[in-house]
């Protein structure tokens, strides 16, 4: 399983990218933790870990940043 994130326009967002949450706060994408299963008929949201400018690092849902975490293996099956 290889995870990757895409933004609302479908552009891939690599780990290490500067991202902005729904409040307008800037952060750095640290890791992709869980695939967004809704895309594949599941029932769990995707999760990412981000580090905000104030140094706090935490795991949040992918939609906080307008992202969708996908899985290359599952994408090949669609």
Model description:
- The structure is a single chain.
- This protein has a single domain (3-77), classed as SH3 type barrels, CATH 2.30.30.
- It has one helix at 72-77, and strands spanning 3-6, 12-13, 18-20, 26-34, 47-52, 57-61, 68-71.
- The longest helix is centred in the C-terminal third of the chain and has 6 residues, at 72-77.
- The protein is built from one helix and seven strands.
- The two termini are 15 Å apart.
- With 78 residues, the protein is mainly β.
- The strands form two sheets. A four-stranded antiparallel beta sheet has the order 3-4-5-6, with no helix packed on it. A three-stranded antiparallel beta sheet has the order 2-1-7.
- Strand 5 (47-52) and strand 6 (57-61) form a beta hairpin.
Please tag this protein with its features:
4-stranded antiparallel sheet, 8% helix, SH3 type barrels, mainly beta, 78 residues, single chain, 3-stranded antiparallel sheet, elongated
């Amino acid at each position: 399983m290889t995870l990757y994130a895409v933004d609302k326009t479908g552009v891939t967002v690599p780990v290490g990218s500067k991202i902005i949450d729904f409040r307008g706060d800037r952060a750095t994408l640290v890791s992709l933790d869980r695939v967004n299963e809704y895309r594949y008929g599941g029932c769990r949201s995707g999760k990412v870990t981000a580090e905000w400018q104030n140094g706090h690092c935490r795991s949040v849902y992918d939609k906080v940043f307008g992202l969708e975490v996908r899985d290359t293996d599952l994408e090949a099956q669609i």
